[in-house]
Design goal:
Blueprint (H helix, E strand, L loop, with lengths): L8 E4 L3 E9 L6 E9 L11 E2 L11 E6 L7 E9 L9 E9 L10 E6 L4 E6 L8 E10 L2 E11 L2 H8 L2 E3 L15 E3 L24 E6 L2 E4 L7 E9 L5 E7 L7 E7 L4 E8 L6 E6 L2 E7 L5 E2 L3 E4 L3 E5 L4 E9 L7 E6 L9 E2 L8 E9 L3 E7 L2 E6 L7 E4 L8 E4 L7 E9 L7 E5 L5 E5 L1 H4 L2 E6 L6 E7 L1 E9 L5 E2 L4 E4 L2 E7 L2 E7 L6 E8 L6 E7 L4 E5 L3 E10 L4 E7 L5 E3 L2 E5 L2 E5 L4 E7 L6 E5 L5 E7 L2 E5 L2 E6 L3 E6 L2
Parallel strand pairs: 22-24, 39-41, 48-50
Antiparallel strand pairs: 1-11, 2-6, 2-8, 3-4, 3-7, 5-6, 7-10, 8-9, 10-11, 12-13, 14-21, 15-20, 16-19, 16-21, 17-18, 17-20, 23-30, 24-29, 25-28, 25-30, 26-27, 26-29, 31-38, 32-37, 33-36, 33-38, 34-35, 34-37, 40-47, 41-46, 42-45, 42-47, 43-44, 43-46, 49-56, 50-55, 51-54, 51-56, 52-53, 52-55
Length: 670
Amino acid sequence: MTRMVKGANVPAPVEPLQIAVCRGRAPGAPVVDVSALLVAADGRVRGDADLVLAGRPHHPSGAVRHLGTAPDDGGPLLADWLWLDLAGVEPGVDRVVVAASADGGPFGRVPGLDIRVTTMTGAPVAYFGVDDATTETAFVLGEFYRHRGGWKFRAVGQGWTTGLHGLATDFGVEVADTGPPPNGARGPALPSPHPGPARTAPPDGGADGGFGPDFVPFVLKGHAHKTFAVPRTVPAGAALLQVELEDDNGRVQVKLLGETGDRGEELWRGDRTRSRARFLVHVPEGRPLRLGIRASRRWAVKLMPVSHAEPFTGHAHGHDLDVLRYDGPADDLHYRVDATDGADAAFSLGAVFPGEDPMTPRPAPAPEAAGGTAAGVVRLPGPALLQVRGRAFWSLNAASGAPVLAEYGSGRRSGAPVEIVNPLPGSPVILEYHLVAGLTSRFYEATETDEYGEERALLFPHRDGMRGRVLLFTDGRAGTRVRIRSVARWVLRLLPLESARPLAEGVRGKGTDVLVHRGGASVVSLTGSAGRAPYYRVEAGAADAMAPAPVLEAAGSRPARGPVPGEPGVPAYVTVRCEGMGWTLGLTGTDGPRPFAESIEGHGYDIVRYTGRPGEVRVECGEDRPVELWLLDKHFAPDRRIATGPGRHEIGPGPIQVRGGGRWRITAGG
């Protein structure tokens, strides 16, 4: 977890986030109410709906929700939870402020007050603890604010002694003291805002379209066999269950148990080829949901509101059960199934529309495929919850989204070469791959052969993993021959360059992916996942480059920086290559590198700017982990190598890339 001091900021990923405002339990401690304010550029809320709190838990945009107080279960902490999707925040909102007010005493009597921000997968984003509270009765703990096309989180820690009144006044809100608080909310009544655009509150059922109740997600991890009951704090109704097998070569079986713990109904059976599934379950009224897990290795279970289903933004693919949320207008949905497992393969597609019971989806007019390949089109009249059930490779593509240019499957002899034709001759395309490991080894071979018969690696198991996106035809060739060995099944899809995710500050991802940046020459920084030390490699280049050039390499969670060459308006494509591990990319301008005139030191890949006179510098580094110094041109492209290894080297002023795996020091004139 990134621990912050007051005033510090960190990039915030533009994806759904969980925010917990925590505090300790203590006799006589004040009651704490948590809220979120969506603030415009003038520092004011635009209307009463821009205040989200326990009595009004949903913002009309669906971007912010108050999930309630976390179950205590006898533990030392209490937590109010917020759900925030920065991608869904309306353009008129400049900041999302997380605040709290105390009823019955000042915050100086609230022990252990802090704010914790994580992604939906539990990856840490920020942690800020308030340790200087005294007589304040309201606090702004932190805020999310727009920055260079992305978002950042700032640790604020500012308090008021006038309670909610003082906090609200600062954000242009008038608080009425008369009348009971609505919906059981504690403290003063909901605010009456300054004049602004009137907006309606969301219908009953909140921002999830009525598919199910909101609650704090429940997460449990274990090993081997376990029977458990979900806490009663999870309300009755539909919920989204995600089960993941965390170890290779394992097997898992999930059962829904009855009230007396009987043998129950099998919900899902997974193994190394089907290691994760998402599906809907019904939490019964009056008793907890009981589940049974039988597994040979480690597993993880997560129970979430249905509204936490991954959004379908035009393209999705998978190999098992999944639930997707479509929020767009009427569109044609193209589906394709590559079911090569004979009688064991199956696929079906269902849809639930707002107001309907998510446990009884309407079957889409798509055939239940069993063996072979099936394809077709389904008409979606509007927003819907899509439920996919398949034991085969499947893909869904919206007609209005970026199209799939071509698709190749493994319904052929293992290891046989496949001729792949470039659908956009002279231009690269994005290759999206999904491989399923064989029974004996997950170290596959994926090669391509050019027109002269030269074979070279296309994907690397230890670097690219089993699924992801890379660039293909970067040299503009019209075709290639691909051979994939030592896998059970595979699917390759060719996508246009428009399918690349935009690169902005604070972008998070997992595994191998392609992003696009149009802001000209920049510096990109990569921070990997904590824990084990995977290998990361970042490549960058323009679409017309012969091949993307490596700009940085890293291992573990230590940040590394490298140049993204380019000119404003000309797209540069950045590929992050990593075997299934998470990462965060930051982005700064060419004025971001650390300047030095006399001495500077660092670790690994970095960008620095020499401001001294042309002359000799001494480079110090480990003999077993030498570094290289590269002079960058005005577009931040590598111009020439000016140093290799330790010793004395001639350099001139300007931006310099340091490439190395260990510690280093550069001293002018030394």
